[in-house]
């Protein structure tokens, strides 16, 4: 069968209304909110459903996501698009920041730096992305992340800078 006549592949993506998660995020400490997502008590981010990754562990200052690369992650040259690694790193590092926040506090990514060090394919196997805090201040937080396979082989690493939005009256934190 030639490529022109090969049957097209399909993938159906479903997700829950993110408004419930947004509401919960405003009433819980960051680490509690992220744990509620992992435990299925509140919906996670729709992008995780779209790209097939999930948060699997969180503690204050650290967040871990996993993904099994698939053909639907491919770019036109036959490897997994670098955007998968970038999205995983952004998610893990930003959630590491989020895990340190108090009730009513938020953040946004200001800068993301990603280094792709080896190609990823659909047969690479499960990848784990770990984000860890470097520094949390009153307005700015930084974190680092690593994307590795089950044998510990590095596929990508990165850093992020996030702007922190503190609750009224909350002081900065140094870590």
TrEMBL record:
Isomerase keyword on record: no
One GO MF term: hydrolase activity
Keywords: Hydrolase
Superkingdom in the source lineage: Bacteria
InterPro entries recorded: ACOT13, HotDog_dom_sf, PAAI_dom, Thioestr_dom
Keyword Hydrolase annotated: yes
EC number: 3.1.2.-
Every Thioesterase domain range: 78-154
Spans traversing the lipid bilayer: none
Pfam families named among the record's database cross-references: 4HBT (PF03061)
Family to which this protein belongs: Belongs to the thioesterase PaaI family.
Protein name: PaaI family thioesterase
Lineage: Bacteria, Pseudomonadati, Myxococcota, Myxococcia, Myxococcales
